[in-house]
Amino acid sequence: MHSQASAAAEKAVVAPYGSWESPISAAAVSAAGRTVEGLAVAGDGRLLWVETRPEEGGRAVLVKEAAEPGGDAVDVTPEGFAVRSLAQEYGGGAFAVQGDVVVFSNYSDQRLYKQTIGDNSAQPLTPDYTGSVLRYADGVFDPHFCRYVTIMEDHRKDSSNPVTTIAAVTISDRDANEPTVLVSGNDFYAFPRIDPIKRRMAWIEWSNPNMSWDKAQLWVGYFSEKGEVHNKICIAGGDPTLVESPTEPKWTSKGELFFITDRESGFWNIYKWDEESNLIVQLYSLDAEFSKPMWIFGVSSYGFLGKDDTSNKIVCCYRQNGRSCAGVLDHDSGSFSELDIPFSSVTNIVSGDGFFYVEGASATLPVSIAKVTLDEKRKTATNFSIVWSSSEDVMQYASYFSLPEFMEFPTVVPGQKAYAYFYAPHNHIFQGSSDEKPPLLVRTHGGPTDEARGVLDLGVQYWTSRGWAFVDVNYGGSTGYGRKFRERLLGQWGVVDVNDCCSCATFLVETGRVDAQRLCVTGESAGGFTTLACLAFRLIFKAGMHKFEAYYIDNLVGNRKAYFERSPINFVDRFSCPIILFQGLEDTVVSPVQATTIYKAIKDKGLPVALVEYEGEQHGFRKAENIKFTLEQQMVFFARLVGHFKVADGITPIKIDNFDEPSL
Q: Please, which domain of life does this record's source organism belong to (predicted)?
């Protein structure tokens, strides 16, 4: 029995698992679906962030922290604009601020605009091209040449294979000017960062078939009098005897270069470039991840403390054994002081003078932004205050929350472990009978180089509060556990992930926690592939839901024979259970044609199947009404075809082919 339920167990009503009433509705889940896509500190020390709003069709708005504690945040973005980049399709890094001036990428036309905070007008900086063929991300202000330096993705010649460069955009003219290319020739670039003292720039670059976390290089290039890049030096990643993936270069106000890399140990740790010797020095050694795979631009895992970052303190976060830790690193002595803050998961950090802002969450706190104030010695957190929450009224449901249990489970490889977060059914009003085990929903995360983090998510609580068990699997290949664990998936996508998800479900059955006859699996993006592969090539599950890395697949799968053998669509005859598919019709990462093909093949085989297609949705649903509808239909689909119970909610189910009688 769930530990939270012990006190109320005697009073709880016995009802079948899956049929429990819960106030955590699909509408409540969609309302809590706001996300953060980038943080920065303005010239007055207040925070700026990009907030996505499902209730506005997924519009992304730049917001500024209230002037006084407890006040209301202020929208910066003018009506008719949305701050979102489509570079590499996943975007991120859509704005930068200097003083009270913001440069941002506008979603509808992908042009760069300049705006003064408080002014409701925005000036275009780049030309208008039909079809959003030029995209920008991860930009910074260049103090030496009065310009904006940014990643530019050019689709004009080939939309399927765009050219990526580092480019400069003039910000002083009133006219929109064609960007000037500064660095080119490689397949991908990220993190252009400019030294505020000397005329030079650091950046990360990498080549196909690698992703940036497989193998990358850190470069520094010096600006000529005209602002061109010359005299380039490879700082890390150039040694053919070392496999490493440097990331997140940052300059201090004194012109010192810091970055993160995973050389030798296989864990991302913080390093410093010694310019005089052209050597790199590790500041602190720990088998933990101080960064994460760069699926989106604009990742910020550390920052410099002190006025104009003149102190020797770095505030940072790392991920180890399923938990995040925030702390302060003294880069002179190499000592690390852990900070006691309520977040168990930290994703982004930006710093100020004696304080920092952190994006994070915990098992009882939804994704939030907090301001953390430090003592004079910069070793202890003296104040922690929430600046923004993805769901401000979430605590009204606290008595229904299921807390995650971090668990290890054996894989098919003897002696090898993988990880997961297990959520038992919990509802203070209901309990299951002693002779029944709950149904289980297994979630496979995307990426596939992503990570489940065990934080408060109403999308999980929607299930557990109705009597479902839920497990988020970190299969081999997930991030957060070092390079060796991540590389279990190389050449084995569709094998290791599938085996681990099945092993996790089997482990929960064998330990008596769930019903072996009611195991379901769900996933989106790369997790959707894993879900379909589980259903096609294994007999564990009874139903499933499936909701810039072209060469990445080559590394993960391998040769043509493996492609064929691991593609579920080639083995439709092996599907043996119901499937429901949800697809955005503007998705450029997973083509709608794939969902239609799978749907038709399964329908032709005579299995129960349904396909829901959404106009105006891309990769990952952003509109509140579609988030709500997806969750409701998934629940009632599983209840009708696997759970064999009636859901408490008044949901009108969609028609399921090969299950519902055709209407007369």
A: Eukaryota
As a whole number, mean pLDDT of residues 51-62 equals 92
Over the stretch 478-523, which tens digit does the pLDDT of each residue have?
999 999 999 999 889 889 999 999 999 999 999 999 999 999 999 8
Q: Check whether residue 367 and residue 417 sit in a common domain.
A: no
Task: Compute the distance between CA of residue 51 and CA of residue 35 in angstroms, rounded to an integer.
Answer: 6
Q: Please indicate, yes or no, whether residues 439 and 576 belong to a single structural domain of this protein.
A: yes
Residue whose tokens read 């955005």 = 584
**Is position 356 within any domain?**
yes
Residues 497 and 434 in one domain: yes
Asked whether 474 and 419 are in contact (CB, 8 A), the reply is yes
Exposed / middle / buried, residue 435 (Cβ in 10 Å: 0-12, 13-18, 19+): exposed
Q: Are residues 380 and 459 in the same domain?
A: no
How crowded is residue 635: how many other Cβ atoms within 10 Å of its Cβ? 23
Please give the structure tokens belonging to residue 457: 């998510």
66: in domain: no
Q: Whole-angstrom Cα distance, residue 178 to residue 156?
A: 13
DSSP 657: B
379 and 446 share one domain: no
388: helix, strand or coil? strand
**Would you say 487 and 478 are in contact if contact means Cβ atoms under 8 Å apart?**
no
The candidate with the shortest Cα–Cα distance to 24, out of 463, 607, 480, is: 463
CATH at 608: 3.40.50.1820
Question: pLDDT tier at 542 (50, 70, 90 boundaries)?
Answer: confident
The answer to whether residue 326 is domain-embedded is yes
Single-letter code of the amino acid located at 529? F
Residue 454 shares a structural domain with residue 541: yes
Give the Cα separation of 145 and 194 in Å (integer).
11
466 and 565 part of one domain = yes
Last residue of a domain, one of 353, 372, 390: 390
Domain range enclosing 363: 300-390
Domain count for the chain, please give it.
2
- pTM for the model stands at 0.91
- Boundary of a domain, candidates 390, 408, 431: 390
473-498 b/e (C-beta count within 10 Å ≥ 16 → b): bbbbbbbbbbbebbbbbeebbbbbbb
pLDDT at 80: 95
pLDDT at 597: 85
Alpha carbon distance 524, 614 (integer Å): 15
Q: Is residue 413, in this structure, part of any structural domain at all?
A: yes
- The answer on 339 and 318 residing in a single domain is yes
Could you tell me the strand order of the sheet in which 134-142 lies?
Answer: 134-142, 147-154, 163-170, 180-183
Q: According to the model, what pLDDT value does residue 562 have?
A: 73
The dihedral of CA 515, 518, 524, 528: what is its sign?
positive
Which residue has 């490493």 as its token pair?
A: 244
Per residue in 432-470, pLDDT (tens digit) is 999 999 999 999 998 888 899 999 999 999 999 999 999
Query: pLDDT for 367-382, tens place per residue?
Result: 999 999 999 888 899 9
What does the pLDDT look like over 396-432, one tens digit per residue? Answer: 999 999 999 999 999 999 999 999 999 999 999 999 9
Report phi then psi at 456, rounded to 5.
Answer: -65, 120
* Helix, strand, coil abundance in the chain, percent, nearest 5: 20, 35, 50
Residue 636 CA to residue 2 CA, distance in Å, equals: 24
Rounded CA gap, 303 and 309, in Å? 8
C-alpha–C-alpha distance, residues 533 and 498, integer Å: 7
Cα–Cα distance between 524 and 581 in angstroms, integer? Answer: 10
548 pLDDT more than 50: no
Q: How far apart are the first and last CA of the chain?
A: 47
